[in-house]
């Protein structure tokens, strides 16, 4: 995802010199700011990259400023814009997706605690994150929105900045609410070029990967863990690319809706299956056979 955005997203000029230059400048700004800044200013590396990249994008004509005021000043959401309907296929699909979302939420929360607080996550924190995820999804559907899930980029952002202050996070949430209620604010964020976002998200995803490796290391590199991680990782990377070329086309629509658009679901199934099937004493048995 970060590399896709770095090249310009799904725009017609994907991979153009302008997009690659914007992504590179944004990434270098984040890196240099993180190296040269002192104190609390070091935590603003992503913001600095966004500002520099956005300003350059304006001069390159990559930002249409006229769209910022195109949606009026205030826009209130409509409650139940669509009348509820109940279909067995959709219900089953949503239940499976929520199981996958729960696994992703647990992973994101665990990585957040590990990267931001340098400790193991507690059971209370896991249950709280899952409850919050479900509650927010239930509320969002009242406004015609799809169910929501945790945002992995935030894990990378916290791992980079080490900012876990609740007031700071609440301020960010307030900005997102304002972006929804005030179209100019939302349009401003939406006007950020994909290449600029890609320059920042590459760093964030790298931090997420590092947090994941740290979690794996804490679990130990036993033969059983290595088997689960290696196959899950290979499936996740491989099917991410294969999903774009239609590897799920022969399957029913229900299967496609669950696995095609969300490769995390495939990884979830593979990792859970291996965790249930592989023996706990796999390493001991291998030594005995030798």
UniProtKB/TrEMBL annotation:
Topological category with respect to the lipid bilayer: Multi-pass membrane protein
Subcellular location: Membrane
Superkingdom classification of source: Bacteria
Keywords recorded for this protein, A-Z: Membrane, Transmembrane, Transmembrane helix, Transport
GO terms under cellular component: plasma membrane
Transmembrane segments: 20-37, 44-61, 73-100, 167-189, 195-216, 228-248, 254-278
PROSITE patterns hit by this protein: XANTH_URACIL_PERMASE
Stored InterPro entries: NCS2, Xan_ur_permease
Gene Ontology molecular function, alphabetical: xanthine transmembrane transporter activity
PANTHER family: PURINE PERMEASE C1399.01C-RELATED
Family membership noted in the UniProt record: Belongs to the nucleobase:cation symporter-2 (NCS2) (TC 2.A.40) family.
Name the UniProt record assigns to this protein: Xanthine permease
The organism of origin for this protein: [Clostridium] citroniae WAL-19142
Higher taxonomy: Bacteria, Bacillati, Bacillota, Clostridia, Lachnospirales
């Amino acid at each position: 995802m970060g590399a896709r955005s770095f090249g310009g997203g799904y725009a017609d000029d994907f991979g153009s010199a302008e997009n690659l230059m914007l992504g590179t400048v944004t990434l270098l700004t984040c890196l240099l700011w993180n190296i040269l800044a002192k104190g609390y200013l070091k935590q603003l590396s992503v913001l600095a990259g966004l500002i520099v990249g956005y300003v350059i994008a304006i001069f390159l004509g990559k930002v249409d400023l006229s769209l910022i005021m195109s949606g009026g000043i205030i826009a209130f959401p409509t409650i139940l814009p669509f009348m509820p309907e109940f279909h067995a296929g959709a219900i089953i699909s949503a239940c499976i997706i929520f199981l996958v979302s729960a696994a992703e939420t647990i992973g994101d929360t665990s990585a957040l605690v590990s990267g931001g607080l340098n400790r193991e996550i507690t059971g209370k924190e896991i249950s709280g994150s899952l409850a919050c995820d479900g509650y927010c999804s239930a509320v969002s559907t009242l406004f015609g929105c799809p169910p929501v899930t945790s945002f992995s980029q935030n894990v990378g952002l916290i791992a980079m900045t080490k900012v876990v202050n609740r007031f700071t996070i609440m301020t960010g949430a307030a900005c997102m609410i304002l972006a929804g209620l005030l179209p100019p604010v939302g349009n401003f964020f939406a006007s950020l070029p994909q290449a600029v976002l890609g320059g920042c998200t590459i760093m964030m995803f790298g931090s997420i990967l590092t947090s994941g490796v740290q979690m794996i290391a804490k679990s130990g590199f036993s033969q059983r863990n290595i088997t689960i991680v290696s196959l899950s990782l290979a499936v996740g990377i491989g099917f991410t690319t294969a999903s774009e070329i239609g590897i799920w086309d022969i399957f029913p629509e229900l299967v496609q809706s669950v696995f095609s658009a969300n490769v995390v679901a495939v990884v979830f199934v593979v990792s859970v299956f291996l965790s249930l099937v592989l023996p706990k004493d796999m390493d001991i048995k291998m030594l005995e056979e030798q």
